[in-house]
Design brief:
Layout (H helix, E strand, L loop, with lengths): L2 H11 L5 E4 L19 H7 L3 E5 L4 H11 L4 E4 L3 H6 L4 H7 L4 E6 L14 H7 L4 H4 L13 H24 L3 E6 H8 L1 H10 L18 E3 L5 E4 L6 H10 L14 H6 L1 H12 L4 H10 L4 E3 L3 H5 L2 H6 L2 E4 L7 E4 L23 H7 L4 H9 L3 E2 L6
Parallel strand pairs: 1-2, 3-4, 4-5
Antiparallel strand pairs: 2-11, 6-7, 7-8, 9-10
Helix pairs in contact: 1-8, 6-9
């Protein structure tokens, strides 16, 4: 739904001509959040901006032939079909390299294209967060697995697809040969927790988990201010200087000499007591006051923000995180830019996402089809167009 389309959307941001192929019924992401036909579709727009839209019935041999015709002059082919479905619809690397030997064939799957579960269906909630080991590491000890936000693992995987495709294009530039790229949600998840996983491979033990109330050091903990807002600290160094600075910021310099907290080991042994003391202190002032104090102490911290707060964050504006799309028939709306910049390059969202089959006719004309051929495909229900023919 998101990982493969999201990668192609960033390619469109970088100037690629991207054709999105959907079934005649439409991508299942359409209308999922707000409902069909309700204003700009935020999820679909995010991951399909800048693309031409083509609707095809791949259950018909003629529909498969259309995709093969498009692929014959393409640089990159991206699919999120399982291995079995790639075979069924003749979209494997072997099929596409017969059509275009130099194409970069790219598969996004949950579990890869080999092994006993290569054809298992997946979303990022299952293959990435659950099977990939992340949920087990962020839950409270003894508590249920934590939930994650939709698309979080998918968009991480989008970046893996993008980087791999760009590298494959570079290899093809040197060899002239088509390439095969594979990205699996489970593998990307394991990479994101590589610090923990690599340690486990050496020590043969799982990482130790802590509840917030027993966090081994306040220097990497989260605290709630008197206005209900949270702040997150990250000063992983356990040197006494950092804890002294932290204690002074909280107006409790005496903690640095207190035998219960004077060393990292002592703080760990008395963690629940120290965190409770810190909670009480943070509860005496609002987040604005704590921001001032922690900045004056040169501490590494950040506010725990909501999406609404990100939208009005001056630093988010400076980064260019959000982009206003102005060409949607329902009016302008903001979406999220690709998470990188290339100085001097034109990386930007070009236009809104396509309506279902909006560019079917123009895409097929560019692929060499005549108007009569195109109309025949439409009349046979093989190609869908927008607006639909009466």
């Amino acid at each position: 739904m998101i990982a493969a389309p999201g990668a192609a959307a960033m390619m469109a941001d970088m100037g690629a001509n991207v054709i999105k192929v959907e079934p005649l019924s439409g991508d299942i992401l359409r209308g999922m959040v707000l409902g069909p036909g309700v204003g700009p579709d935020p999820w679909f727009e995010l991951d399909n901006r800048g693309k031409d839209g083509l609707a095809i019935d791949l259950n018909r041999p003629e529909g498969i032939q259309v995709v093969h015709q498009l692929a014959s002059s393409a640089d990159v082919f991206i699919t999120n079909l399982t291995r079995e479905r790639q075979e069924r619809f003749e979209m494997t690397a072997e099929h596409l390299h017969q059509v275009c030997p130099a194409i970069v064939h790219t598969s996004l799957t949950g579990y890869g294209t080999e092994g006993p579960e290569a054809d298992r269906l997946a979303y990022d909630m299952t293959a990435f967060f659950a099977r990939g080991g992340i949920q087990a590491l962020v839950a409270e000890p003894g508590g249920p697995p934590a939930a994650f936000r939709p698309g979080q693992g998918d968009h991480t995987s989008s970046l893996s697809i993008l980087s791999a495709v760009l590298a494959a294009l570079r290899v093809r530039e040197h060899t002239g040969e088509g390439q095969i790229v594979e990205v699996a949600l489970m593998h990307v998840a394991a990479w994101t927790i590589g610090s923990d996983l690599s340690t486990t491979m050496v020590t043969n033990t799982n990482p130790e988990l802590f509840s917030r109330s027993e966090w081994p050091t306040p220097l990497t903990c989260r605290f709630q201010c008197s206005d209900g807002k949270w702040v997150a600290l990250c000063m992983p160094s356990q040197t006494s200087d950092w804890f002294e600075r932290f204690a002074a910021c909280l107006d409790h310099s005496e903690w640095a000499a207190d035998p219960r907290f004077a060393t990292p080991e002592a703080r760990r042994d008395n963690a629940s007591e120290l965190i409770a003391l810190c909670d009480a202190v943070y509860g005496t002032a609002d987040s604005v006051e704590w921001a001032r104090r922690m900045d004056e102490a040169a501490m590494t911290w950040a506010p725990v923000q909501t999406p609404e707060e990100i939208a009005s964050d001056p630093q988010a504006e400076a980064l260019g995180i959000l982009h206003l799309i102005e060409d949607h028939p329902d009016g302008p709306f903001f979406t999220v830019n690709a998470p990188f910049k290339i100085r001097g390059a034109d990386v930007a969202i070009r236009r809104r996402a396509p309506e279902l089959g909006e560019h079917s006719r123009s895409v097929l004309v560019d692929a060499g089809y005549g108007n009569c051929e195109i109309q025949s495909l439409v009349d046979q229900g093989i190609v869908g167009v927008y607006p639909a023919d009466p």
